[in-house]
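Handoff note, outgoing to incoming analyst
You'll be picking up this chain. Sequence as last confirmed:
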Amino acid sequence: MAQLWQSPILEESFALIDREVGAHPFTPAEYAVVRRVIHSTADFEFKELVRFSEGAIAAATHHLSKGDPIIVDVTMVRQGVAGMVERTFQNPLLTAVTVGEPPEDGRTRTETGLLRCLEKHPNALVVIGNAPTALMALCDRIASDQAHPALVIGAPVGFVAVEASKQRLAQTSVPQIRVEGRKGGSPVAAAILNALLVLAWEQQP
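Most recent structure output, in case you need it:
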């Protein structure tokens, strides 16, 4: 099994998290994702907030291992995952907010950029760690059969439209990993994708 370099401090941190989490309902792969989110946030409430659709991790690791595209909503998510992407499968990494200038039809720049990225890569793995409007727009494209993402990581943070966007995602049939409620954010979204990259890398022969 291929292994990624892991520091002693990270290993010790994971061991501490394991002891505090104790018994849990997750599969080993799901727990690897949840544990990395807890490590990134020092917030054990994420044990109760992260949701996985059936087959989500398998869909994600298959997509990533082929080197297929990843779309992230904002620069902070990109910065959080670029190193792991480079060390593993070197997937094309597109950032919606940087291609959304100028915004169209009253949309935000991130929303506009995401739609432009989806036009070129309708089957990409999509990561939303900041912009609920972008997640809503993605769900619209899924509903109209214009996008078929390999996986959606839905983890926007905040108060306005955040919970509604996650509920909308939950109603779709696409593979997804989402964070319920108001919590989330770029570090959480990046942690989820990094965990999936590690899982895909370690599953290689």
